[in-house]
Amino acid sequence: MPLRALSDPDHLPALDRRFALDRPAIGLGPGDPPPRILLLYGSLRERSYSRLCVEEAARLLRFFGAETRIFDPATLPLPDQVAGDDHPAVHELRELSLWSEGHVWCSPERHGQITGIMKLQIDHLPLSMGGMRPTQGRTLAVMQVSAGSQSFNSVNTLRVLGRWMRMVTIPNQSSVAKAFEEFDDAGRMKPSSYYDRIVDVMEELVRFTVLLRPHATQLVDRYSERKAAGVPIDPASDLSSIATVPHRPR
């Protein structure tokens, strides 16, 4: 199965719980069921810092009341390598995206850009699939890790991709410089301003996901898609036409 198990899911040694809201989205929208977040990372190394960052993000999302799934891209084929994309890992990735309400994407920066592994996963997510849209309207948080000084090339590219995939990318983002210095031998992130930023980003992602939850369908309703599907507007249920109809003075 291309799902990655999360070790110590409730252990947050770098988090100062005196300042942490366990339900940051209260009052912004319906909190039940828990927000469903899919997390993708961009390296197959045994000690992958993008994966370690994603795992820290997943633990924080759980703390904030979300349900998480981490996709393991190790068995994912290249695009068009398998006829009709008929591969178990491709099916799993697409089903996970359909299940999700939001995504977290974290890529290493390699040669000044996101990795091929990161792009491979996004390339396997179609804009439309059998009348369903695996990414449209979902929230997105972007992160990157770097071996050297802090950079924002990868997160900038991930933002472009998120917009292309018709996702709502949140304002905040995380870029971890010299990532090899930020984790202990057990693969847990040390307390730092980089960790605090990941907390900020996950807190914001939960807020935006809950905030948009009641409005997601309306926000991505498109004229061109209604026209292509041959679905005319029903005047009896079209609130926009009701709101703009001229009112006669009494």
UniProtKB/TrEMBL annotation:
The gene is arsH. Its cofactor is FMN. Signal peptide: none annotated. The lineage of its organism: Bacteria, Pseudomonadati, Pseudomonadota, Alphaproteobacteria, Sphingomonadales. Belongs to the ArsH family. This is NADPH-dependent FMN reductase ArsH. Gene3D superfamilies: 3.40.50.360. InterPro entries: Arsenate-R_ArsH, Flavoprotein-like_sf, FMN_Rdtase-like_dom. One of its GO terms (molecular function) is FMN reductase (NADPH) activity. Residues 35-180 form the NADPH-dependent FMN reductase-like domain. Homotetramer. Keywords: Flavoprotein, FMN, NADP, Nucleotide-binding, Oxidoreductase.
